[in-house]
Amino acid sequence: MKGIKVPRKEANNIRKILMEESLINLDFKITRDQEFVYLPLKDSVKTEKLVSFDIDLEIVENDFEAQKRGPKSFMDYLKGKIDETETIEIKKSFDIIGDVVILEIPEDLQKYKYIIGKAALDFTKRKAVFMKKSEIKGVTRIREMEHLTGENTSETIHIEYGSRIMLDVKKVYFSPRLATERERLVQQVQDGEIIIDMFAGVGPFVVDISRKKEVLVYAVDINPHAIYYLKKNIELNHLEKKVIPILGDAREVLRQKTINADRIIMNLPGTAHEFLDIAMKLIKPGGIINYYEFSSDFDTPINRIVDAAGSRNVEIINKRNVKSRSPGVWHVSIDAQIN
Fold first, then answer.
1. 236 vs 256, which has greater pLDDT?
2. What superfamily in CATH does domain 175-338 come from?
3. Whole-angstrom Cα distance, residue 146 to residue 103?
4. pTM for the full predicted model
5. Distance in angstroms (rounded) separating the CA atoms of residues 130 and 142
6. CATH architecture observed for domain 2-61
7. Residue 47 pLDDT level (bands cut at 50, 70, 90)
C-alpha cells in the first residue's frame, strides 16, 4: 500500500503534520529501518495534497502491518451480545478492588448477568467478578454478593496511594471511591498526633495515615472479620508500633479508655451522629473531628456536632460533598475543631 518514506530525524515532525491533516491511515502500523520511517497513507490521499506542504516527501509502496484493534471500553465487549437499547441501562461505573470487580446490574438485565460479568472480566483483566445482591446491611456494613465469573475468590489485596490493603469483599465494607478523601485527610494530619478511628474497618484511613505520618492510632471496629484484616494490613505495611486494633462497639470499648485524642475519624455516615457524645469526651481542646454523614445539606451534620459539643466552641474548618449517595443526598464530610 502507499506510504511516505522520511528520514528518522524528521519523522516525528512530519508525522504530526500529516496527523493534523488526517492523512495517515491509523489502521496500519508505522514501520522503521535504520535510516528511514515509513508512514502509511489513506487510499484517498492525492499526491498534489502532499506537494502543497512544501516538504520533501518520497511516496513508496510498502507492506504495512494492520493494527490489532480490540474493544476499547466495557460497552464494546457487549456489542452484538445485548441489544444496544438495553445496554444503555447498564451501570457503567463499577468498583475494582484489587483483583475483584463488583458490578451493579439493573433488575431487568439480570437475565444477561453472566454475559455482563464476562465482559467486565475481559475488559478489566482482573481475576473475579461479583454482583451486588443487596444494599449494605447491619452494623458490620456488608452486603450479599453473587459470583458471576472468573475465580471464585473474594479475598484480594488492593493498592491505594502505595498502601496495601488486604480484605474479603464478602465479609467487610470497603469503598475504593473514598481514596481521594482518605488522601485528603492524610494531608491534614501532623506528626505526633494521637488518633482514634471509631469505625476503622480493614484500616484504609489508618494504614494510609500511619504509613506517611508519625502517629499513634487506636483503630476500632465491631466486625471481627474487619479486625482480622486490619491486623493483616498492619503487618503488610509494617505498622505494628503505630496502630492499636480494637474489636468491639466503639461506644462500649472507648468508654473504658482514657485517651486524649488530637483527631477522631467518624466515617460511619448512616449512624455516626449516635457516637458524637463519646467523641466529645475523648477529643482534646483544639482537637479535630473528621465527621461523615449522609445528608442533603451541611447544616444538619454541623448542628449535630455543635449540639454534642455543648458549651465547647466549634470551628468548622472544612465541609464538602465527598460523593453522591442518591438524588439530593450526599456523603458529606465535616472537619470540626473542638476548642
1. 236
2. Vaccinia Virus protein VP39 (3.40.50.150)
3. 10
4. 0.78
5. 14
6. 2-Layer Sandwich (3.30)
7. low
